Amino acid sequence: MKFLFLLFFISSLLFSNVYYSKVEPYEIRDISSSVAGLIEFTDEDMIGKKLSSSAYIQIDSELDKQELKYLQEKLKHLDSIVLSSEVILKNSEKSLQMKKENYKSIASLKIKSDIEKDREFYDLLLSENQYLNTKKEIRNLKIQILDLKLKIAYLKRAISDKNLKAKGFVLYSILVKKGQVVGISTPLARIADVSSAKLTIYLDKDDVLSYKSKSIYIDGMKTNYKIDRILHIADSKNISKYMAQIVIESPKIFSKLVKVEFKNE
Predict the structure, then answer these.
(1) How far apart are CA 208 and CA 93, in angstroms?
(2) Each residue of 82-121: pLDDT tens digit?
(3) Burial readout 36-71 (b: 16 or more C-beta within 10 A, e: otherwise)
(4) What's the rounded Cα separation, in Å, for the pair 157 and 226?
């Protein structure tokens, strides 16, 4: 009897509790629309397959592309106007400098009448105002260009957001149909990252305290896996259990149930 008790005690030291977990993709993302528009295309043939660089959902962007082309043309014209205006500004600056020197040279001459001096002075003021106005126009043009560049950036992003791509992910499901009008935040699809997999288990307190010193066995086979994430706060549903996750290699088939054990060496 003592021998059986001793055998049971040794076994309890060697083996911890057994846990079961479903092999899940490393991540499943719910994709919602960040733009409004008409669904133009959905590639339902790709459901369950790994996506390429092609779009699996397209939202109509014809008007966006036309507007983008118009804004890019407008930007070219504004850039050209700024270049011309800067040349005018340089010439105005040279002219202004010459008129300043000319007025300075005649201001103290007694042979020049006050009327001539006043005429030169007002001509100088006019040139200075023209110079300042040209400078102001260039500054306003550059502000318009910055605003235009921002609009172009937003438009490019909107066009990109209307062509949903997720290279390397598996298309889990498509939630919209061709011809459907969607708004911002409308659910569009679910995609899965299957580059690796994860096991979610709910550990007993003893295993939480000792898991670092134990090896992980999956379906009876010793592995080199370690716990990648653990919560030291008990789960709200699984009372007195602590959630832990193990990242493993991507299997050929997901969603199968596996047995997970923590054992002393």
Answers:
(1) 78
(2) 999 999 889 888 888 887 777 677 666 666 666 666 677 7
(3) ebebbebbeebeeeebeeebbbbbebeebeebbeeb
(4) 40
Confidence of residue 232 (pLDDT cuts 50, 70, 90): confident
Cβ count within 10 A of residue 132:
13
**What average pLDDT does this structure show over 166-188?**
96
Residue 179 buriedness (CB in 10 A; 0-12 / 13-18 / 19+): exposed
Cβ neighbours around 169 below 10 Å, total: 22
Report long-range pairs for 218-227 (Cβ below 8 Å, ≥24 apart): 218/248, 218/258, 218/259, 218/260, 218/261, 219/258, 219/259, 220/259, 220/261, 222/263, 223/248
Number of neighbouring beta carbons within 10 Å of residue 28: 15
φ, ψ of residue 173 in degrees (nearest 5): -165, 155
Task: Give the pair of three-digit tokens for residue 244.
Answer: 């832990």
Type of residue numbered 14: L
Amino acid at 113: S
**If we measure between CA atoms, which residue out of 186, 227, 171 comes closest to residue 25?**
171
Tokens 């592309």 found at: 65
Residue carrying structure tokens 């962007």: 61
Report the alpha-carbon distance of residue 33 to residue 65 in Å, rounded: 18
Residue 234: other Cβ atoms inside 10 A:
15
